[in-house]
Amino acid sequence: MPFKSLIYIILPIFFIACNKTIQKDEKIIASEIEYWVSISNESDDGNLSIIEEKAKNLFLNDVFDKVKKGELPVFYYRMDTLEKIDEKTLHNIFYSVDTIYEFEGLKLTKTVVKDTLDISSITRFKFREKWLFDSKSNKFQKQVIAIAPMQTRYINMDEIMGYKGLFWVYFPE
Asked: pTM, whole model, 2 decimals?
């Protein structure tokens, strides 16, 4: 089995394995901890990503299809609130429409530009997890609560301005 196919199989198993019920000897270390992981071919610090492009695209297509169908709960990407995202805002993330106005001499032209979310623009995941430690077996466990797909934003073609979280996708326990 090729390595790329194996990653697509292992990634969902990782999420399932991380979302288990708390056992008697497990202690919660952090009820909610957040961190980001680079999923692009090359991160901004020069390290190579461990997620192959094909596996990343298959995973994102699967999650985004479930999000669009309402099979996974989706919330605004905000710091201090957990508010379910409305359908119009969610639709506008996946399918945007913009208008460009240009002057050609004295004539103003209007061009409507329709765009869809480009999966290759997703360069990071932000994870929200619960961390557990089983004192009996001395094993560390993580439960994925949610992920946020993130896009790199640029000032110009070479300079990164920052990262934009699109929304939080919550995974039921």
From this structure: 0.72
Q: What is the 3-state secondary structure (H, E, C) of the chain?
A: CCHHHHHHHHHHHHHHHHCCCCCCCEEEEEEEEEEEEECCCECCCCCECCCCHHHHHHHHHHHHHHHHCCCCCEECCCCCCCCECCHHHHHHHHEEEEEEEEEECCEEEEEEEEEECCHHHEEEEEEEEEEEEECCCCEEEEEEEEEEEEEEEECCCCCEEEEEECCEEECCC
Task: Let me know: does 126 contact 147? Beta carbons within 8 Å.
Answer: yes
pLDDT of residue 49: 60
Say how many domains are in the chain. 1
Distance CA 66, CA 133 (A): 31
Domain limits at 48? 3-170
Cross-strand pairs, 129: 33, 144
Average pLDDT over residues 39-49: 60
AA identity, residue 130: K
Q: In the predicted model, is pLDDT for residue 12 greater than 50?
A: no
Asked whether the beta carbons of 154 and 162 are under 8 A apart, the reply is: no
- The residue type of 2 is P
